[in-house]
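Here is a protein:
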Amino acid sequence: MSEKLIRTFISVNLPRQIVNIQSMLQSTVHNRKANIKWVKPGNIHFTLKFIGHTPPDAIDNINAVIQRVSENHTGMKYLIKGTGCFPVESRPRVLWVGIDGQLDPLLNYVAELNNQLEKLGFPTDERDFRAHITLARIKYPPKISPDITGFISSQFEPLPFEIHKVNLISSELFPHGPIYSILGTHFLSPKSE
């Protein structure tokens, strides 16, 4: 009997105030006919890598990789700032808020994660990593594309956050939305004084 695969990803927890930003931005998109699914407040996170369908016996090896990579990097400070969408404003599929600050340490961390996980058979994404936090997804074909002009032009007070630890998460999909479970927590090295 084959083992059931687990959907996994690597992410960072965010400050609780992200929910206030999402709530404010939700009020900027008014089209009821568009099929917009806002991320449940308790599920908002910052994904560093979506691994995908994972054999349960690979979890320990993935956690070992995350631990090794995390020990080579120190904590990072960023701001949650600005809004955007993928792929284009006229036909958006994802509504997001951005990450602002010196991104090189984060990009290096993610590149090392990808490099090491590729050796375990988990390929690097074909698309370049773009630091963002998904707040909503839009399913197509909707009756009409939503007008997200208000979302894109919205301003909010930048929210500072720090990355000191990352989690390996499993995601079980249910009709009412995904349920997340932590499969491992890994701390970045403390900054040397």
Observations:
- The two ends are 53 Å apart (CA to CA).
- Residues 104-119 form the longest helix (16 residues).
- The mean pLDDT is 93.
